[in-house]
């Protein structure tokens, strides 16, 4: 584990891409094959199965640290990460360990076969011999989800440097349905043919957000414009009479969407389509929240299929007749996609994402304004002569998102932040007017500068009306402009609405509280843009 | 309105010290400790901006804290006393005792007819070799900070931290990079200087830090040799050397002149991964002039006090924990700000 902990420290300590790649490449040169394989798995979200629930972990950690459970919970609240909180509250290790990463993972996987006492013994034994960083990693192996800011792409680059296998070949080989239990390092890295795994998708090409003026992109005729539909990006593969559906998170989701299953027969072998898994009925996309009801479910029943039907909104064609056509220009791929869908009836399962023809950027800007009503996130711009690249690359593909919805709201409650910000009030609840009372409707945490947080903190201290645990109610006075991406009806929220991605856009010191928006304004927005909370 | 009024009930009207919206107050002697609003007479624990503020008619501090307080606050009426020396005002005995936080920092002991209070300001138990080392003071009422009053905060011994810092400097020097290390101008900067290995290279300082160094050297305290960063210095002189900077200067154009740098930050907050990442430093070193969790508990135990008043930091959590230990602990709302305030003061930005 020491070798892996060193890698983690080197990765964690820098934000510079080159330093991260160098650290990984060094590791891939030195570590043994099984550790390398597991590291690749962890960095591509292939984790060992969860074998202990976090409630048990908390109890054991508090006991070993000699503190009350509530103190551990409070620490967790401040730190924001359970694995890290536990690694820090435990007393210093009693001994050190030279077990490798794979050996520790084997131990974690074994835990599932033990009873509760056995689990406790194994976990607390581990804590006694691991240092703070190693404990953190060990805990993460159990609880899952550690982020070190290494994308699949960076990992592939480092692996390529260490193994001298070409990066694009590696990218292809690393996708697909492998785990360290089903393959070896050698098999994975050196498997020659791309067809030895017919499910293997192509890396997605991702667009950058357009920050500059659209006009600066050049003349409209160089560009293809279409809506950026608000679903889940997906890749649909038909090879050897079998169907595979991948989501952008490189997750195989074929079983979740039985609507697509007839496509194995309806589309020819050697077809790969890039598109959007989109909830859709009666000729219209439904809101993203409709799709959300299906994301977490492994099994889908009839009721769900009726309430949340989906189609594939096709954007692009990557493989036709078994040939990889990603290097051909966008315009040509689009023609081939249209031809494919004209010659093959998909019974309405695959739709062609309509292209919006425009000769003036102003026309397109106007179309973008309609995005929210159409349940799209804005406009996608693709250069007509662009290849289908890998990952996020600047220049050829842009997403031109619709501006956020905004509402002016009054600050009602404040709560302290985490970590370095524990001395500052950073978590706020806002209200809108309902007659002459203010009703809370959303929380927001981000969007202010450090200076503004400092100022509002001083103000909160002096204007607290009441306290409820960590929350303080403050004198209604300050107005903030809240930006958000969507709104829907919600039975779980007191105000009856829930916002998507709310944040503070501006502190409106120019506005008296009386001029904040009203509940009626909020309901009007719900009427216009909202979906039902199912 | 004073939000401190909430706590008046716990300190009955006859209490020796009370908590007002101007600061900690001794009515019998009519003096305040570390007040944050203008008052006639103020006893000051140490020179950090949140404890030592402008606008008091008269100040009292330790001899060794005096020069920096004067330097920061300008033309004030300041009297100084030695550690342990007793000043009696209307029968109340006041004395200053080492707090180990920064040079000259003190806990203020207040005694009247057998009732003993200690206001500890900011403090740490580990002897940094530069500040007067912390000494426990027995009392019945103890006022403590709780900047790092959470069990996740446990410091590693300073020798190990300085070994890491010096290794980092050496590695940067080998790559021809400039090591830029940040710490607030008063306290952390001198402690870093004290622990740096001058045999690795030259140490340059930001103006705000060097101004404070000059004040401290003038009072007869030895610090390693440093060079003030200035326009006259040839940019080719910097690679391989170390620059000690205030955290605030890092975001400024000032930093550009050093070329290829590695940025290190030294603070207790660097314990947490989230804080390390938000700071954007290449390296975070966990080094604090405040107590960690075990030190706070040890200090409270050493005072023998049963009444604990918890100021700036994780006040609610720490006082709740003390109550589970059977102590009579309450949280206080003050305007002390802990390490945040120590990182930057108006003085530093003005003179920097
Ligand atoms: Zn201080
Ligand atoms: Zn303080």
Structure description:
Chain A has 534 residues and is α+β, with helices and mostly antiparallel strands. Chain A folds into 3 domains: 2-143, DNA ligase i, domain 1 (Orthogonal Bundle), CATH 1.10.3260.10; 205-401, D-amino Acid Aminotransferase, Chain A, domain 1 (2-Layer Sandwich); 405-529, Nucleic acid-binding proteins (OB fold (Dihydrolipoamide Acetyltransferase, E2P), Beta Barrel). Chain A is built from 19 helices and 23 strands. In chain A, the strands form 5 sheets. In chain A, strands 4, 5, 6, 7, 8, 9, 10 and 11 form an 8-stranded mixed beta sheet that branches. In chain A, strands 15, 16, 17, 18, 19, 20 and 23 form a 7-stranded antiparallel beta sheet that branches. The two termini of chain A are 46 Å apart. With 352 residues, chain B is α/β, with parallel strands linked by helices. In chain B, 24% of the residues lie in helices and 24% in strands. Chain B has helices spanning 66-73, 158-174, 188-195, 207-218, 273-279, 293-303, 315-324, 339-343, 346-351, and strands at residues 18-19, 24-26, 31-33, 41-43, 58-62, 78-81, 86-89, 92-98, 106-112, 115-119, 141-146, 178-182, 203-205, 227-228, 242-245, 261-266, 283-285, 307-313, 328-331. In chain B, the strands form 3 sheets. Chain B has a 7-stranded mixed beta sheet, with helices on one face. Chains A and B meet through helix 5 and helix 6 of A and helix 5 and helix 7 of B. One zinc ion binds at residues 46, 48, 51, 101, 122, 342 of chain B.
């Amino acid at each position: 584990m020491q070798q892996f902990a060193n890698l983690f420290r080197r990765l964690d300590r820098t934000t510079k891409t080159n330093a991260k790649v160098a650290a990984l490449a060094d590791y891939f040169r030195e570590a043994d094959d099984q550790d390398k394989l597991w590291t690749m798995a962890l960095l591509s979200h292939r984790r060992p199965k969860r074998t202990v629930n976090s409630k048990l972990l908390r109890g054991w950690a508090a006991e070993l640290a000699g503190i009350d459970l509530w103190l551990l919970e409070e620490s967790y609240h401040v730190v924001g990460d359970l694995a890290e909180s536990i690694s820090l509250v435990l007393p210093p290790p009693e001994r050190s360990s030279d077990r490798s990463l794979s050996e520790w993972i084997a131990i974690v996987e074994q835990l599932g076969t033990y009873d509760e006492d056995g689990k406790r013994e194994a976990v607390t034994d581990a804590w006694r011999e691991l240092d703070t960083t190693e404990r953190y990693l060990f805990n993460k192996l159990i609880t899952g989800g550690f982020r070190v800011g290494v994308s699949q792409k960076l990992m592939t680059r480092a692996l390529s440097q260490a193994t001298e296998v070409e990066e694009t070949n590696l990218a292809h080989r690393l996708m697909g349905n492998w785990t360290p239990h089903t393959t070896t390092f050698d098999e994975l890295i050196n498997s020659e043919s791309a067809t030895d795994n017919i499910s293997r998708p192509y890396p997605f090409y991702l667009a950058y957000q357009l920050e500059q003026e659209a006009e600066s992109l050049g003349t409209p005729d160089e560009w293809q414009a279409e809506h950026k539909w608000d679903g889940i990006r997906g890749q649909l593969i038909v090879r050897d009479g079998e169907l595979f559906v991948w989501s952008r998170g490189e997750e195989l989701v074929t079983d979740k969407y039985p609507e697509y299953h007839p496509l194995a027969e309806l589309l020819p072998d050697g077809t790969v389509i890039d598109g959007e898994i989109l909830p859709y009925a009666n000729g219209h996309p439904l809101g993203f929240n409709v799709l959300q009801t299906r994301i977490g479910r492994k099994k889908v029943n009839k009721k769900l299929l009726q309430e949340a039907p989906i189609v594939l909104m096709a954007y692009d064609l990557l493989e036709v007749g078994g040939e990889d056509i990603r290097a051909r220009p966008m315009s040509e791929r689009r023609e081939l996609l249209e031809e494919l869908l004209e010659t093959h009836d998909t019974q309405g399962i695959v739709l062609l994402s309509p292209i919006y023809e425009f000769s003036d950027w102003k026309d397109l800007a106007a179309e973008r304004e309609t995005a929210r009503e159409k349940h799209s996130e804005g406009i996608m711009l693709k250069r007509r002569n662009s290849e289908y690249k890998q990952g996020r690359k600047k220049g050829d593909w842009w997403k031109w998102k619709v501006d956020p919805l905004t509402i002016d709201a009054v600050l009602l409650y404040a709560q302290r932040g985490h970590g370095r910000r524990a001395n500052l009030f950073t978590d706020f609840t806002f209200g809108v007017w309902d007659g002459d009372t203010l009703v809370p409707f959303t929380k927001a945490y981000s969007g202010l500068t450090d200076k503004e947080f400092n100022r509002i903190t001083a103000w909160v201290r002096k204007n607290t009306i009441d306290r409820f645990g960590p929350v303080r109610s403050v004198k209604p006075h300050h107005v903030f402009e809240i930006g958000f991406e969507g709104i829907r009806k919600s039975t779980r929220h007191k105000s009856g609405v829930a916002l998507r991605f709310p944040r503070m856009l501006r502190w409106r010191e120019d506005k008296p509280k009386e001029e904040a928006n009203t509940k009626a304004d909020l309901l009007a927005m719900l009427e216009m843009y909202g979906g039902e909370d199912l | 309105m004073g939000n401190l009024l909430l706590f008046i009930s716990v300190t009955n009207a006859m209490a020796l010290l009370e908590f007002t919206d101007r600061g900690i107050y001794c009515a019998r002697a009519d003096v305040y400790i570390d007040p944050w609003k203008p008052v006639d007479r103020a006893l000051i624990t140490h020179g950090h901006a949140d404890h030592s503020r402008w606008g008091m008619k008269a100040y009292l501090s330790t001899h060794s804290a005096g020069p920096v307080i004067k330097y920061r606050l300008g033309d004030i009426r300041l009297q100084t006393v030695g550690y342990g020396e007793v000043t009696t005002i209307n029968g109340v005995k006041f004395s200053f005792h080492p707090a180990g936080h920064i040079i000259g920092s003190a806990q203020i002991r207040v005694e009247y007819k057998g009732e003993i209070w200690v206001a500890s300001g900011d403090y740490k138990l580990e002897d940094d070799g530069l500040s007067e080392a912390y000494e426990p003071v027995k009392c019945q009422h103890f006022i403590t900070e709780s900047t790092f009053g959470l069990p996740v905060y446990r410091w590693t011994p300073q020798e190990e931290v300085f070994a890491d810092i010096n290794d980092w400097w050496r590695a940067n020097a080998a790559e021809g990079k400039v090591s830029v290390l940040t710490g607030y101008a008063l306290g952390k900067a001198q402690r870093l200087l004290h622990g740096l290995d001058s045999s690795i290279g030259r140490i340059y300082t930001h103006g705000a830090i060097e101004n404070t160094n000059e004040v401290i050297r003038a009072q007869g305290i030895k610090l390693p040799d440093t060079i003030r960063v200035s326009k006259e210095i040839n940019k080719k002189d910097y690679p391989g050397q170390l620059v000690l900077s205030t955290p605030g200067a890092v975001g400024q154009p000032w930093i550009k002149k050093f070329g290829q740098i590695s940025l290190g930050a030294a603070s207790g907050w660097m314990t947490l991964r989230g804080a390390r990442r938000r700071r954007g430093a290449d390296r975070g070193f966990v080094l604090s002039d405040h107590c960690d969790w075990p030190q706070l508990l040890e200090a409270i135990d050493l005072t023998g006090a049963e009444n604990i008043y918890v100021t700036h930091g994780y006040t609610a959590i720490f006082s709740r924990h003390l109550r589970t230990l059977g102590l009579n602990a309450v949280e206080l709302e003050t305007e002390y700000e802990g390490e945040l305030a120590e990182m930057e003061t108006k003085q530093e930005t003005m003179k920097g």
